[in-house]
Amino acid sequence: MPTPQTLLLSVRVRPAAKQPQIIKLSPVEYRVSVVSPAEKGKANREVRAMLAEYLGISASQVRIVRGEKSRLKLIAVEFDA
């Protein structure tokens, strides 16, 4: 049975942006602009969905480890080995 591999990403989020965008700053550092406001977890859900689509995985494989209420987040991405 394959075990998942976890990659940790540092993500700076810009909520309430005019258009959604992902900028890769380094292999493990991203800047993500989301249209959703930073209220009631809307921006966090959009960040997870955008990163999942960008990486070609499902949103359930993207998890916020630290920074739920901060613009700087540590995100764990699980890949099947």
Summarize this entry quickly.
This protein is an alpha+beta fold and 81 residues long.
Uncertain runs are none
Shape: globular
Overall mean pLDDT score?
93
| CATH T-level topology | Conserved Hypothetical Protein Mth637, Chain: A
Break the fold down into its secondary structure elements and pairings.
Blueprint: E1 4-14, E2 21-26, E3 29-33, H1 42-55, E4 62-66, E5 72-80
Parallel strand pairs: 1-3
Antiparallel strand pairs: 1-5, 2-3, 4-5
Q: Would you give an account of this structure?
A:
The protein has one helix at residues 42-55, and strands at 4-14, 21-26, 29-33, 62-66, 72-80. It contains one helix and five strands; from the N terminus they run E-E-E-H-E-E. It has 81 residues and is of the alpha+beta class. The protein has a single domain (4-80), classed as 2-Layer Sandwich (Conserved Hypothetical Protein Mth637, Chain: A), CATH 3.30.1200.10. The longest helix is centred in the middle third of the chain and has 14 residues, at 42-55. A five-stranded mixed beta sheet has the order 2-3-1-5-4, with helices on one face.
